[in-house]
Amino acid sequence: MDKKFKLWEISLIIGLICAVALGAWAQRSQRELSEKLLRLHVVANSDSEADQALKLSVRDRVLELAEPIISGAGDIGEAAEALEANLPFIIGQAQAEVKAMGYDLGVGAEITDGFFPTRDYGEFSLPAGKYRALRVTIGEGGGENWWCVVFPPLCGEYGAFSEAAKQAGLSDDEITLIAESGGVKLRFRCIELLERLRKFLSA
Question: What predicted TM-score, i.e. pTM, was given to this entire model?
Fold first, then answer.
């Protein structure tokens, strides 16, 4: 009995060590990526089918507007500055899109920092964590969000994923990391679990 108990203890310790190491790796990877990526966060007015469809129309318009604005940006800082300087234009055009779709809803936009969950975008995945983002809010902003990456333009129709990522300064290892599937995506979930654990312990 004692021997089995000791083996169980050893297994638990090894598991905890692995979890801590894995969590540290995931957090480091996320921090390095967050310094190179500018996210796009579009918040719908509500979860109604109509408001969700409107959110996607505004998303498409914002991505279209952002392409020429950030085309000359060499890094996330330059991209954020360019977008912030053009916020009135972006808001005006997004507002026009809302009106063209037959809605009387306000639109707001800002460059801000926020927490994003782990997301799988098909060609690539990004770990949960804090990122700088262009946040666009429609109406009351009470609906489901849409997340992606505006710089480099990884979620628009602006060319190959790997080419856009390289132009933004991502290394080959970082591109391989976020483009991998399966185990890497599961390991990215460690950040969310650690964040939830911290909130639970601090409650």
Answer: 0.71
pLDDT above 50 for 132: yes
- Spell 146-184 as b/e; 16+ CB within 10 A means b: bbbbbbbbbbbebeebbebbeebebeeebbebbeeeeeb
Backbone angles phi, psi at 104, to 5 degrees: -115, 75
Cβ–Cβ under 8 Å, residues 189 and 25: no
The answer to whether the beta carbons of residues 54 and 101 sit under 8 Å apart is yes
Least confident among 9-23, 50-64, 125-139, 147-161: 9-23
Spatial distance between the Cα atoms of 106 and 152, rounded to a whole number of angstroms:
28
Q: Give yes or no for a contact between 146 and 116, defined as CB atoms under 8 angstroms apart.
A: no
99 to each of 55, 58, 59, how far by Cα in Å?
13, 11, 14
Q: How many CA atoms lie within 13 A of 103 on its CB side?
A: 23
CA 163 vs CA 64, 152, 184: distances in Å? 19, 10, 21
Joined together, the tokens standing for residue 161 give: 């994923």
At 37-87, the pLDDT tens digits run 899 999 999 999 999 999 999 999 999 999 899 988 888 999 999 999 999
3-state secondary structure of 103: coil
